[in-house]
Amino acid sequence: MVDEKAWAGITVFVVALVAALDLLGWLPAGVILTVGVVAAVLLLGIGVLVLGEIRDGVRGGR
């Protein structure tokens, strides 16, 4: 579970950094779109992993 939290934290940090650079006008739109898509896919993957661990924990608790 710690790895998923670390990846989520890193992803949020990178997205915030890219958003700040976008507001300053230092990044082209293609980079922003690419980072956004990668972040969305990564966070969805983390969500699936976490849900799988929760499901396995519920099965093991019975």
Could you give a quick summary of the protein structure above?
With 62 residues, the protein is an all-alpha fold. The protein has helices spanning 2-24, 29-61.
- Gap between N and C termini: 21 Å
Tertiary shape: elongated
How many distinct helices?
2
What is the number of strand segments?
0
Average pLDDT reading: 84
Major sheet: none
Q: Which structural class fits the helix and strand makeup?
A: mainly alpha
Low-confidence stretches: none
User: Using only CA atoms, what is the Rg?
Assistant: 16 Å
* Residues in β-strands, percent: under 5%
What are the secondary-structure elements, in order, as H or E? Answer: HH
Helix content: over 70%
Question: Please, could you describe this protein's structure?
Answer:
This protein is mainly alpha-helical. 90% of the residues lie in helices and 0% in strands. The chain contains two helices and no strands. The mean pLDDT is 84.
Core attributes:
single chain, 62 residues, mainly alpha, 2 helices, 90% helix
Task: Provide the fold topology.
Blueprint: H1 2-24, H2 29-61
Helix pairs in contact: 1-2
